[in-house]
Amino acid sequence: MKVLPSRPDFEADPALARGPAPAMIEIDRVSQTFRTSGRQAHLALSDISLTIEDGAFVSILGPSGCGKSTLLYIVGGFVSPTEGVARVKGRAITGPGPDRGPVFQEFALFPWKTVLGNVMYGPRQQGVKSPEAEAQSRRLIEMVGLKGFENFYPKELSGGMKQRVALARTLAYHPAVLLMDEPFGALDAHTRTRLQNDLLNIWERDRKTVLFVTHSVDEAVFLSDKVVVMTRAPGRIKQIIDIELPRPRRRAELLLDPRYQKYVVEIERMIDDTSEDGLRP
Amino acid sequence: MMTRALSRLAPLLACLGLLAIWQAGSLMLNTESFPTAMSAVRAVPSILGDKESLVNILDSLRRMAIAFAAALLFAIPLGLMMGRSRLVASFFNPLLMITYPVPKAALMPIIMLWLGVGDLAKMLVIFLGVSLPVIYHSFQGARAVEEKMLWSGAAMGLSAPQRMIRIVLPAALPEILTGCRTGLVLALITMVTSEMIARQSGAGNILFNALDMGQYDTVYAMIIIIGAMGIGLDAAFERLRSRLVRWSEPGFDIPLSFA
Amino acid sequence: MNARALTSEVLLGIVPIALALAVWQGISSFGYAPVTLLPPPGLVFSRLAQQLGTSTFQYEIASTLFRLFAGFSIAVIMGVGIGLAAAASPAVNAVVRPIVRVLAPLPKVALYPALLLLLGFGHESKITLVAADALFPILLSTYYGASMVEQKLIWSAMAAGTPRRQILFKVVLPAAVPSILTGCRIGLVISCIVVFLAEMISSTDGLGHMLVTAARTFQAVDMFVPLITISLLGLILNGLLQGLRSYLLRGFPEV
Ligand SMILES: Nc1ncnc2c1ncn2[C@@H]1O[C@H](COP(=O)(O)OP(=O)(O)OP(=O)(O)O)[C@@H](O)[C@H]1O
Ligand SMILES: [Mg+2]
Q: Which of residues 30-49 of C touch B (CB under 8 A)?
């Protein structure tokens, strides 16, 4: 499962030129079994191994119920795997930590806090002094395009705005890894495109490691260095595809790029096949 | 299996534990006005064995049952209509708001002036006490019924009254039953209080007469009897409720009881 | 449009109250009921207004309010505390759950004689009764609210570096506030009812005591006054709680 770093246009970066990037996340033969209320054992993830380099943008695609969220929760430390280990920077994951920031599909904003309060929560928790945390948070809110909404409550925002607050709240405590579970799933196509661009801009600047779950093949190809395709339940890794498209990526150029189109078609075909694959051992 | 049996037995264990604490407390305080749990429990059979007390207690229960049933017949339709019509709701809401904090048993002296101390006065008070929570919960339940469900009912050709009975009533049933459960405990409480105020007959009367006459064993034995009635009625009702609304999500699994 | 709809709703709500008053007035002024049984509303309300100015009546209200607040406060503190603890710790839950199952449906008024014998006829027994009755709705809704907190809120806070011990106060408690306040509203109504009943059963002061004294001497007017007063007190306290609610829940979506 060795996958080479796939950022040809960053080869010039001296830090990266020294050799393969160090592994940020290692998922080592992880399986997850759930006990259902009918007291049956349900295998959700089966023998997953995956290595993600520092600074890589990795997407996970797969049919519904194949365990994508579960895998993300394991890396987040919210769920501990029944077998195998997950490691971050070489250390086994035992619980959540501010080095891995989740962005949930449901936003999960604190309803009792304003936009500013939500974004400030992380830095304050890290011990940053209040005025400084506020200044940082205001900058972040501006960056995600919500200047002027600092004192709004989550209920007063649209879905896309909430999603941006959720992103800002997670970015505010500078996690090395972003764990995003269908973050744009609930959004309209237009907002979705805008947020994809925002996310790419942020990523290209900060070079965080991103683990990104999505159902959209376009989105995965557009954003990622690497796309992981999983099989139907019990989830296994079917294939890992390196997306060798130049960065920085422009949506308008990419959509016309035959290489992009080839990736999309190839992956879509692969997902169509997964139903048969799931039956094979 | 083990844990399941244990969770069945847990309330029983809790009862025994509370009795044990009582026993220990009374042995420590050692005053005449706080007999041990043992002697209180021992006084229970003699009260239930006494013909007059038993008739009194059964009379109380009969009044309670009639008033409770009448209250349900009145309160559920009213609550459902309030839940489905803004007009009806805004008509009755303020009236309910001002009557809610009034203790219904406290109306006893006034109602006694009008109707005497007979069964009717006591039943009227219980009726009033039960009605409010049942109206309130039926109202909440009916209001929460999804509009789309009614639309699809209308599309299937159900008339408005049919929709009320075939859609709103079953959909609101879990909430209605929660209200009924609260109402049941409330009926018991109002019964005790009203009899205590009227001081003529019934379980409440036995309790407070014993208190006045300093028969402490009887006081505590009556507390046990009335308490057991509350817990028993509630458990029975809960069994019925969980059978009727098996499909619904569990809400509060313990009733909210008050006077 | 909206404001007009609201006014018409308020007007509609006044109708049954006005109607009841009119029927009441009608019955007494057409002589269907003698004044000793049903005094006309004018008489009752002027008596209420006159009483409100006297210091004895103010004293009765004050002692009722004191017991009400004392009992209610104890119920809030204990209910929220135990409810949170039961939601947070399986061990506490295993103990609290069966006890609550037994004690919640117990008619607490029946315990009042025992409280009188144990705590005497003063404030203590009444405050205890109020607290015992208001406790359970608050406890249950706290428990309910705290155990229904969305998992992802807790995860978000943990990922931001909140230690496990602080999650209870930083996430679970604020997220449970809507439910806790609903419990408090029920608890408040109960407190009003119970304090009045306790004062009726045994007291030397308070609104409930006023009613009993009036009933002994068959003063119908004076029987109505404390009843209307407790209803007004309930309305005012409920309004205050509603204000607190809309302040505390300004961020929460409409329930
Ligand atoms: N807490 C749980 N208890 C029991 N089974 C669970 C639990 N969480 C997830 N599962 C099961 O694990 C499997 C994977 O769930 P998961 O949520 O990870 O899927 P997913 O790939 O994220 O699906 P989707 O694309 O629909 O979000 C499912 O079959 C689900 O039934
Ligand atoms: Mg998922």
A: 33, 37-38
